[in-house]
Amino acid sequence: MQTKTKNNHIGRKISRIRELRGMKQETLAEELGISQQAVSNIENSEKVDDAKLEEVAKALGVTKEGIQQFNEESIFNYFNSFHDSSAFNTHCTFNPLDKLMDAHEENKKLYERLVQAEKDKVAYLEQLLKKK
């Protein structure tokens, strides 16, 4: 016997998008101005009215169509495409050690300026004490 899964359960799609965005139900509820229980009810609903779906989409930073057409398999295919070396250039255009040494030199200069500022402050305070 074959069990057909429901791919158009809007509530599950909302829940999964929320989880992928690292958002808790409480946070989404706060964004929507509703209770956490109301968010739970939305996520358990197979269908959500268009107006509420628009609000949820805006709070999640996606479009209503993005929620309706969300497919977890396509997300995995998208992320798996990053393993394809032809997808982007992996050649580094600079020497990371040079960048590290530049940062070290900059820190050294900043430290020397800080030390000089402290020396100037001490000299000024000593000068004030001599005047008294």
The CATH top-level class label of the largest domain? Mainly Alpha
Shape: elongated
Report the mean per-residue pLDDT as an integer: 84
Number of helices: 7
Radius of gyration: 28 Å
Per DSSP E runs of 2 or more residues, the count of β-strands stands at: 0
CATH fold topology of the largest domain: 434 Repressor (Amino-terminal Domain)
Count of domain modules: 2
Unreliable sequence segments: none
- CATH homology superfamily of the largest domain: lambda repressor-like DNA-binding domains
In whole angstroms, the N-to-C terminal distance is 99 Å
What is the correct CATH architecture of the largest domain?
Orthogonal Bundle
Alpha-beta classification: mainly alpha
Question: Can you tell me about this structure?
Answer:
The protein is an all-alpha fold. The protein folds into 2 domains: 78 residues, lambda repressor-like DNA-binding domains (434 Repressor (Amino-terminal Domain), Orthogonal Bundle); 41 residues. Helix content is 67%, strand content 0%. It has 7 helices and no strands. Helix 2 packs across helix 3. It is elongated, with a radius of gyration of 28 Å. Keywords: Coiled coil. InterPro entries: Cro/C1-type_HTH (IPR001387), Lambda_DNA-bd_dom_sf (IPR010982). GO terms for molecular function: DNA binding. Pfam families: HTH_3. This is XRE family transcriptional regulator.
